[in-house]
Write a structure and sequence with these properties.
By secondary structure, the protein is mostly helical. It has helices at about 1-10, 20-65, 75-85, 90-95, 105, 110-120, 120-125. It has two domains: about 1-65; about 70-125, no CATH class. Keywords: Coiled coil. This is F-box domain-containing protein.
Length: about 130
């Protein structure tokens, strides 16, 4: 067709071909505007879904944490673990006071761990 010839060459359109090309340009501009608007709408929706998914994922993780077996470990077992996790008296004296190697670390995990750590006098004495 003459239109395909114009697309494949650099020749100017003849006077009779100009209305057809103008019509194609007009229709494609309308369609492009529609597609741009639709894509913007879908991007907005995708952003909303992404936010919702992030919030739901965080909520899921927090609820999954509630089921952690560590929450059910008896205080006596944590007491034993805490006692073994800290440096010996000799090591503590050699290193000097360091909050990263002391019961302070254990007492900052959760209120439950804090209560357990505070109830173990041997953790706090050298």
């Amino acid at each position: 067709t003459p239109h395909n010839r114009l697309l494949a060459t650099n020749e100017p359109p003849q006077a009779a071909e100009i209305p057809l090309v103008e019509s194609v340009v007009s229709k494609t501009a309308v369609r492009l505007a529609f597609l741009d608007a639709e894509m913007a709408r879908l991007r907005d929706r995708l952003n909303q879904l992404d936010e919702e998914r992030t919030e739901l994922s965080d909520y899921h993780a927090r609820n999954t944490g509630i089921l952690s077996p560590l929450r059910r470990v008896p205080p006596e077992v944590l007491d034993e673990i805490f006692s073994w996790s800290l440096p010996s008296v000799t090591e503590a004296l050699d290193r000097g006071f360091n909050t990263n190697n002391s019961p302070w670390v254990l007492s900052h995990i959760s209120s439950r761990w804090r209560a357990i750590a505070l109830s173990i006098p041997s953790l706090w004495s050298l």
